[in-house]
Design a protein that fits this description.
This protein is about 45% helix and about 10% strand. It has about 190 residues and is of the alpha/beta class. The radius of gyration is 21 Å and the shape is elongated.
Amino acid sequence: MLGNVLSDLSSFLGAAPGGVPGGVHRFDENYYRRMDALTFVVKHDDGMGLEDLDRAEIIIVGVSRTSKTPLSIYLAVRGYFVANIPIVLMVEPPPELFKADQRKVVGLRMDPVRLRHIREQRLRSFRDDARQAYIDAHLVQREVAYSDQLFKRASWPVVDTSLKSLEETAVEALSLATNLPYRRSLEER
């Protein structure tokens, strides 16, 4: 049925078909690693899955809306096992975080004004006026200050996501997580 189309396409491209169904998509070791990493990140999103946090290669921490989940997924698609844990004002993070290899932990922070703006947009998109404390300028500033103090106290490296793309944040986070079992650039994954 596709014989003429394939023949014409082969002539046009100057190349013969490989004859391997699904040849474009390789199901190799890297593919399965990425699928495992995605499964891991879903089970370890927003402070879940703390019982095997030690399996994470990178642990992302930060207050709400600093891009913890998008960064975690971005890195997982590239084969990294990532967990993320929220920092909540005046709530000590879970003890499992401090028991984990601290070289895996990277903090995300954002300028309080930018963070408040992002949160306002999110609430507007959900038409949720009930959570005004979430966007209160004074409380947002306190949250960021609290997370900054926590990062400093724990000696965790920090990426300021205020004006960075997800890709830039990922490159910086990878360079700061110093206990990766193997180092390869994002382009190689």
